Amino acid sequence: MIGEKLQSSWIWRCLIFIGISLILNFLVWRGVRIEEDVVASIEKSKPAETALFQTIQKSGFFNNRVYLKIFDPNVKDIIRNGLAEFDYRETAFAPNTPPDPADLYRMLAFFPAVQRDKILSSERVAELVARVKAAMGLPGGLSLLKWLELDPLMLASELKNIVPGIGANGESDVMMVERNGALSYENVAAFYAFLKSHDKQLAFVGGDFFALENRSVVQRDIAVCTLLSLILGALFFRACCRQWRVLGLLFLGTFFSSTLGLLLTRSLDGVLYGLVLAFASTFLSFNNETLVHLAGAEKNGWRRSLPGTASAIGTTIIGFLVLLCSSSHMARQMAILALGTLLSFILFLLFFRRELRELEFKAIQLRPLAWRPWPTYALCLLSLAAMVYLPKPAFRTDLESFRYASAYLEAQTERFNSALKNFNLQAMVAVPIKDPTQIEEEFANWEKSGAIDSSIWHPLRLYIPPSEQEKIRKEIDPLVRELQAELQMKLAEIGVRLPLSQQTFSSEGFDALTYLKLWSRLSPLPWTLHTGDFPYLLAFASRPIPGAVPLHPKPFYEGILNDLAQEIAYLFLLGLGLMLLYLLPWQRDLHKVALIFMPLLMACLVLQIFFIFSGRSINIVHIMGASLVIAVALDYSSILVSTQHDPEDQGKVVLTGTLTLSSFGSLIFATHPVLRELGLVVGIGTGVSWIFALLCRREGAQKA
Amino acid sequence: MGHCSRIFFAVAVLLAASANAAALSREGLEKKYRGLKFFRAEAVQSKISIYLIRPLVSQVSIQFKEDRLSWQVAGQEALEIAFTKGQKPRLLKAPAGIAQSLPAAAEAKLLETLSAVRDLMVMDPKLDENFLVRVQGQELHFAPKQGPKEREVFFREIVLTFADDLSLVKMLIRSSEDETTLSFTDLKIEK
């Protein structure tokens, strides 16, 4: 009784589905973590590499950190005083605090002879006395004595002549601050605004600011794309179909199925990516194809409809199934969500079979070009040959194309990098040192082979073996004591007392690893890190060094993204092969299969030409977009070829094509480069394949 | 003079002292010094410190004009700092070798101290925010409040001694390294 009532009253069924969807929606969004940071998806894609990278980063200097290049020393205190308010703190990795004099005196033997001779001279003592004389009458001037007490020959002020990036008095002009806890966008936004207000006196760079900007554009894109997609979808549906009930089914079905898809994704992954949610805004177009293809299938008889419908839906499922094999976490999540949504939509339609049977679509009588088998095969082979013959666009994924940054942030990053011209941080790598006693030899070998950037300063170039160190120390230690005594005496002549802490000089030489550890305390960058089983030597590579881990996020993430892009491209080819195998039994005719593939091949060719002329390189986003093109392109041609370009099916494909183009076209208005590029590829690919599918039919196959 | 006259004299001295003490008040000082646009002072500076074998005595000229304060020890170049609203004081000029040799932390403390001198001289309305200001007899004591500000500033206390007519007589700056006394020989102020 109730079943009959439900069957007869579609309003009741709709209300039940609205209720179920609302409950499921509540479950989806309750306590869900939405990851807006795109980089997080890259990290999850390669957990092993990321673990090593993160370990090195944690003891290194990019993790959760913001770097400030200070041009005006007065602003340093303003920044220091403001840090706590934004939940950041200054870290002590870079020597923003003065270097420990004991370290400096241990390193004196390694100072270049010119600097050492300058320091160890009576002229130096006279110069220091003159400085004290000038300072002592000023309020606070005697604090200079406090420094001289610890570092009588002021070695700290000589560091800047040896190591680039060191300011006067041995302090680094690069300030490093670290986030205290988890990322709070409110705090990051406030800190960003704070730094912007001082950007004349400093340059800054920090991953947190990229995460913040990405988040805001992804949120905006989700809203804009969904709204545009909905409005355009409704308009096209209204124009081509004029049945509000269908539109109601489509929207309600999309609401229900995407909710179920999100619930499935959430339960499998735990976290939802902001970009995947934005991608979900395009599901209306996938669903409209399923709805339109299944509509009337029962009425027209499954024998006629099944090959086309099964070909269309089956190839889409294969396309997403192969994406499930990807290492890319985001690609897998998109595939799970798409599959979950597609299957949930079919489930939803099962409850509206009567309405589906009654649906009628406007028939459109186009005049497609009739193709015989051999010209079809020839065109397919020709397009394949053209793709092989034409120049190939570069196959490269830059981090910039995977994340959004405002012009201001890009300019600020560029300004920071050029301010740090002495250290090309992007070339910085950590090389595992299997035998710490051989560091200097290995370094010399890399340098000889051109793997190390010789234009960037490296402390190992100043390293001398222990025997030589001992020899130099034997010469300089008495001289240091003599000059310190001379300084004390000359200061006493002007009425100044300089108490000297009795320093002990170790004449023992030390190995390269200890030497690098000392330099790590003295210079703005670390030179050695210890993590896992080995110590790591930090160096600036001009060519890849075996086993080296890039320390800068850009080369590290780009390495992962390029690997993933290659892998998805192979999956994409595998998917095509599987689709071909899948279509053969359904179509039972090679000519039909060739006609189904022809629009897709033409779309790929046009995309290749577009990439060549626009100067774009193919990146992971384009590859993911291409897999969507496969799904929809094969949908159109499968239906039309299977139904022999039936006018009613032509009308359906016109409708679904315009809907898909409008929903993917809406992505072109996205600000985030991932969505925009996805929209561009899917828009062009879908458009070309849609036109070819409509205009190419099998000879003698069209119905009147 | 008998006992009575001695007692009378002692009472008179005490009364005079209390009358004088009453004469020095925050209000009075603020009326005279708040919002000064210009001041110039000549002083004899005497400095004692654990780093000095004997007291260091020198002649000092201090001038504040158009948001710039200069501090010149006789025979040396002047040290000059600029004050810009909402920003920390900035070192404009320093005797040869000082700018290069003073550690940044020491430079910051020096600027803090000079900034405090300027704030005191112009009776800056924000003085009470970070510092404890109290009047004791003819003296105005100025010390950093407990908390982070105390660690920031170079000095522990600044004491200004005023004459009956509220003219500045002496300034004492106590720091962890030294104690500097400025005995003013000439002071010109303009509002």
Description:
Chain A starts with a helix and ends in a 6-residue tail after the last strand. Chain A has 28 helices and twelve strands. The longest helix of chain A is centred in the last third of the chain and has 35 residues. Helix content of chain A is 63%, strand content 7%. In chain A, the strands form four sheets. Chain A has a four-stranded antiparallel β-sheet. A four-stranded antiparallel β-sheet of chain A has the order 9-10-8-11. Chain A has 704 residues and is an alpha+beta fold. With 191 residues, chain B is an alpha+beta fold. Chain B has a ten-stranded antiparallel β-sheet with strand order 5-4-3-2-1-10-9-8-7-6. In chain B, a hairpin with a 7-residue loop joins β4 and β5. Chain B starts with a helix and ends with a strand. At the A-B interface, α5, α8 and α9 of A face β1, β2, α3 and α4 of B.
Low-confidence stretches of chain B: 7-22
Shape of chain A: elongated
The helicity of chain B comes to 25-40%
Strand share of the residues of chain A? Answer: 5-15%
Secondary-structure-derived class of chain A: alpha+beta
Largest sheet of chain B: 10 strands, antiparallel
Short description:
Chain A is built from 28 helices and 12 strands.
Helices, strands, pairings?
The complex is a heterodimer of chains A (704) and B (191).
Chain A: H1 2-8, H2 10-29, E1 33-35, H3 38-45, H4 47-59, E2 65-70, H5 74-83, E3 88-90, H6 101-107, H7 113-119, H8 122-135, H9 143-150, E4 174-179, H10 185-196, E5 202-206, H11 207-240, H12 244-269, E6 271-273, H13 274-280, H14 283-294, H15 297-300, H16 302-323, H17 329-350, H18 353-358, E7 369-371, H19 373-389, H20 407-419, E8 428-432, H21 439-449, H22 466-493, H23 512-522, E9 528-531, E10 534-540, E11 549-550, H24 553-587, H25 590-614, H26 620-642, H27 647-665, H28 673-695, E12 696-698
Parallel strand pairs in A: 1-6, 7-12
Antiparallel strand pairs in A: 2-4, 2-5, 3-4, 8-10, 8-11, 9-10
Helix pairs in contact in A: 2-12, 3-24, 8-22, 10-11, 11-13, 11-27, 12-14, 12-17, 13-17, 14-17, 14-27, 16-17, 16-24, 16-26, 19-25, 24-26, 25-26, 25-28, 26-27, 26-28, 27-28
Chain B: H1 3-23, H2 26-33, E1 38-49, E2 56-65, E3 68-73, E4 79-82, E5 90-93, H3 98-101, H4 104-121, H5 127-130, E6 131-136, E7 139-144, H6 148-152, E8 155-162, E9 168-175, E10 178-190
Antiparallel strand pairs in B: 1-2, 1-10, 2-3, 3-4, 4-5, 6-7, 7-8, 8-9, 9-10
